[in-house]
Specification:
- By secondary structure, this protein is an all-alpha fold.
- It has 16 helices and 2 strands.
- It has one domain: Farnesyl Diphosphate Synthase (Orthogonal Bundle).
- The chain is globular.
């Protein structure tokens, strides 16, 4: 059993006490089925600790380069978390309370808005889904993703990222529960407003639609002020995510499954959000970084699927969602494994293999020395997205549920 006082006292260094994002749950989602696997020794850990990536490119001659003051370092191994990755560095935004407040405000708009009140075949509406989220202790739920993913974002951009994460979770949960015709209604009502060239009507806008249009305008203003289109590209990836086809009934092999899972997990959107958070343009389809990006997408998919497996399988078995799109399930079927534990172990082994491949690719890129300083900064940030994904999966109530709540230590 995880020691609550150890987690709360050792996850943060003393100088960062004022920025603590409370951890009330710890979920060991691997359980005892991966004990024969060992975490790999990765060179990238030393590079992250020494901030080497921040000194690459045109900054190669500088000795003292720091990440932004918007985030703080976490110490998951010192806190004895069931750390399910060989990537040891992890960070958190200082602005988690801003994320929480922004999320609550937007959910309140959804809950009260008549345009979100239509009841669909599942028996629920977007408004009802939002009310259910408001009834939970949100700081323990999916609100944790943005502060752990985008730790170096400034407050203005973090607020926008928090808004977009609400869209991702509310609309995607709806997508999983409904067929294409039902989701098209949501698409035309809300998502179309995020498309390039959309002009909001002057009249007949509810407070929710006004707020959405305001956020879109703020993103455009930030792009204009920065002189690049990171915000626009981020929105394009969100629209593409909500335009993806439903999953196939069967996949020929693991490669085909993972390529679809990349789309289904919104990983291009996450990469675009990372660039937006850092306030610089990045080509997330650059040939120079194609192999690195592919491995990052594999890692996010597999690691997230391991954390969410029990929750997703339970929802599917109960008929609460139409699809079960999870690496653990895919591996179990492809290899015809007898038990879920065997599939979990194989999925985790695959994740660790991907980590060694990421490490090898980074060493190749260092030796080749052809990336720009922004591309090296992006590698630094995306590696922290990978560890942030694991961190969120461990400490959210969303995946582990009440049985994994940290209890107060006996005095």
């Amino acid at each position: 059993m995880t020691n609550a006082s150890v987690v709360r006292e050792r996850l943060y260094s003393a100088k960062n006490d004022e920025h603590k994002f409370p951890v009330n749950y710890v979920y060991d989602y691997l359980g005892r089925c991966t004990g024969f696997l060992s975490l790999p020794n990765l060179n990238l850990n030393e590079h992250l600790q020494s901030k080497r990536f921040l000194r690459m490119g045109k900054f190669s001659s500088q000795k003292n380069v720091e990440r932004s003051d918007h985030g703080i370092d976490l110490l998951p191994l010192a806190a004895q978390l069931p750390w399910a990755t060989g990537i040891r560095s992890c960070r958190q935004s200082k602005y988690w309370e801003l994320c929480l407040d922004t999320t609550r405000t937007l959910l309140e708009h959804f809950a009260a808005d008549p345009s979100a009140a239509k009841v669909f075949r599942s028996g629920v509406s977007l408004a009802e889904m939002s009310r259910q989220e408001l009834g939970k202790k949100m700081e323990d739920g999916w609100v944790k993703f943005a502060p752990y993913f985008f730790s170096d974002s400034d407050p203005k951009r973090m607020r926008i990222l928090a808004v977009l994460m609400v869209f991702i979770f509310i609309f995607d949960e709806f997508w999983e529960m409904h067929d294409a015709s039902s989701f098209n209604i949501v698409y035309e009502q809300f998502i179309v407003r995020m498309k390039s060239g959309f002009t909001p009507p002057v009249e007949d806008r509810t407070p929710l639609l006004l707020l959405i249009d305001q956020i879109m305008a703020e993103i455009k203003e930030l792009d204009n002020a920065s002189g690049h289109l990171a915000g626009r590209l981020m929105l394009d990836e969100m629209v593409a995510f909500f335009s993806r086809p439903p999953p196939s009934k069967a996949y020929e092999n693991m490669e085909d499954f993972l390529l679809y899972r990349h789309k289904d997990a919104a990983i291009d959107f996450v990469l675009a959000c990372t660039a937006f958070s850092l306030d610089f343009p990045i080509d997330i389809r650059s040939p120079k970084l194609a192999r690195y990006y592919r491995l990052v997408k594999d890692h996010v998919s597999i690691a997230n699927d391991l954390g969410s497996w029990a929750k997703e399988k339970r929802a599917y078995d109960r008929g609460q969602v139409l699809y079960l799109i999870n690496t653990v399930d895919a591996i179990k079927n492809f290899l015809r494994l007898e038990t879920e534990n065997a599939a979990i172990a194989m999925a985790y082994a695959l994740q660790l293999q991907v980590e060694t491949q990421i490490d090898d690719e980074i060493e190749y890129l260092i030796a080749e020395d052809s990336l720009t300083d922004n591309e090296w900064r992006f590698i630094d940030a995306t590696l922290l997205v990978l560890s942030g994904n694991v961190m969120a999966s461990i400490v959210m109530s969303r995946y582990g549920g009440e049985e994994n709540r940290l209890m107060k230590d006996a005095s």
